[in-house]
UniProtKB/TrEMBL annotation:
InterPro entries named among the record's database cross-references: Beta-lactam-related, Beta-lactam/transpept-like, Diverse_Enzym_Activities
Name used for this protein in its record: Beta-lactamase family protein
Domain Beta-lactamase-related stretches: 20-265
Cited Pfam families: Beta-lactamase (PF00144)
Coiled-coil blocks: none
Length: 275
């Protein structure tokens, strides 16, 4: 049975209007795909993965550095990427804690990061993202009409190309990606929006690293080396380098109780069927 077959029941079970999902493997092959792969969806916070990757390219180009001061006093590019700059979840530009002391998930930090990169390069962030990441990967259907933290739009077909890059990086060195998915500022507790408090709440440079834990949105069968992100608009992408698998799932129903049940089950089926 298809590992992704369950998404075809989501309209009846959960009232999900549209869903597209795809599984890719380390060799770049599409292991399985369901739904309209060319349908455009809002990415919500999965956008952060694309933004982070553009910053990784900029790091290799030495256009920016992790130690660059950016954001609140005492904060750096590294703090912004790892959600430890001191901004609150919904505090806007106001810092609520000392940089490096807490993991507080914040769109503001990612938006400040994108502005920092634009100022450092003299290139509008959307243009930099397109030239550094989207165009080289052939992601012609992906756009950034809104916030670099949550305003991207894309298709399952395009994100399959990005997921392939995450499993087998070509735009950046393997060492750069390894550094990005390493847990930065380890040991910090925090709240994963919509899912509650985790201690610790592990994060890399833009990549969530809290996988293979109870109550996680990606289920229990992915390995602890998995990294990725989910979006409140009903989207997720995870890459499991240990199993050589990545899964993209896009929908147009906001994250909620339905996704807390449907997403772990789907991810477990993917690992069982393709891992």
């Amino acid at each position: 049975m298809s590992a992704l077959a369950g998404i075809e029941d989501w309209p009846q079970l959960w009232g999900v209007p549209n869903t597209a999902a795809v599984v890719v493997t380390t060799d770049g092959g599409i292991a399985e795909a369901r739904g309209d792969q060319d349908r455009e969806f809002g990415l919500a916070s999965v956008t952060k993965l694309l933004t982070a990757y553009a910053v990784l390219v900029a790091l290799e180009e030495e256009a920016v550095a992790l130690t660059d001061p950016a954001g609140p006093s005492g904060s750096t590019v590294e703090h912004l990427l790892a959600h430890t700059a001191g901004y609150g979840f919904d505090s806007g530009a106001v810092a609520v804690t000392r940089p490096g002391s807490k993991r507080v998930y914040s769109n503001q930090g990612i938006e400040v990061l994108a502005r920092h990169l634009a100022e450092a390069t003299g290139i509008d962030f959307g243009t930099y993202l397109s030239e550094a990441v989207l165009a080289p990967l052939g992601m012609s259907a992906t756009t950034l009409p809104g916030s670099p933290a949550a305003g991207g739009r894309s298709t399952a077909a395009d994100l399959a190309r990005f997921a392939t890059e995450l499993l087998n990086p070509q735009l950046i060195a393997r060492e750069t990606l390894d550094e990005a998915v390493r847990v930065h500022f380890p040991g910090l507790p925090g709240i994963l929006p919509g899912l509650g408090r985790f201690d610790p709440l592990d994060w890399g440079l833009g990549f969530e690293r809290n996988f293979a834990r109870p109550r996680h949105w990606a289920g229990s069968r992915v390995s602890g080396s998995t990294f990725g992100h989910f979006g409140a608009g009903g989207t997720f992408l995870w890459a499991d380098p240990e199993r050589g698998l990545a899964c993209v799932c896009l929908s147009d129903l906001d994250f909620g109780e339905w996704s807390k049940q449907a997403w772990p089950a789907l991810s477990d089926e993917v690992v069982a069927g393709h891992g």
